Amino acid sequence: xxxxxxxxxxxxxxxxxxxxxxxxxxxxxxxxxxxxxxxxxxxxxxxxxxxxxxxxxxxxxxxxxxxxxxxxxxxxxxxxxxxxxxxxxxxxxxxxxxxxxxxxxxxxxxxxxxxxxxxxxxxxxxxxxxxxxxxxxxxxxxxxxxxxxxxxxxxxxxxxxxxxxxxxxxxxxxxxxxxxxxxxxxxxxxxxxxxxxxxxxxxxxxxxxxxxxxxxxxxxxxxxxxxxxxxxxxxxxxxxxxxxxxxxxxxxxxxxxxxxxxxxxxxxxxxxxxxxxxx
Length: 279
Prior knowledge:
Elements: E1 3-7, H1 19-38, E2 42-49, H2 54-63, H3 67-84, E3 91-94, H4 98-113, E4 117-126, E5 139-142, E6 151-152, E7 169-173, E8 181-190, H5 196-203, H6 211-219, E9 225-226, E10 235-236, E11 245-246, H7 251-267
Parallel strand pairs: 1-2, 2-3
Antiparallel strand pairs: 4-8, 5-6, 5-7, 8-9, 10-11
Helix pairs in contact: 2-3, 4-7
């Protein structure tokens, strides 16, 4: 008998999910979890609503409610929809729990103290009307490589090349059509090359993984990953006496790990097939 942890993608709590989301992250993971249970393995399938970031703020402004009110409502809507569909989550939680905040802060602190996180600057897109940072996918323009219109700030679907938002020609915000301004701002970065040796050695031991997955994973350790942003709704770095707000790039994975551990201790981990939402 094996212990199987199924970490399902976390849907944004900025609106109800549609059939494409269910087909993309809901059904495949549920089929796999049920298959492993039928084999007699102990399975824990974990997910929840992602309740931080620009999509939440944008939708909250549109509806005239606070970000927390919006997240609370759509957490309930999404959890009920997934439950009604019969998906067999053992834990369906959210990124706004106190446990999640505590674990994210502790992880950040340990990485910082051990030298795996460092300060740096990066050019980011800012909304002139709100002063908020704009995610890459919220910016569109003309691809500087192939000239196609409608290229996003992270990729051009026409030619397949990855892009940075400031590389786009005539960039505009998808939210309101305004031209973003680009500013150098301070961020924290996870030093992926410093973690490369151990992780690459581990990746070489993987059997049964698709080649493209292996290559993608190896490619992650050739750069750096930003772990901070300028949000007014998120996880505060109060333990580090820094005034900005923290939005961990791996917050969903952290939440899965922290809640999984607590449920392991509290409920002997396995034997449940009910959807649970932590408040």
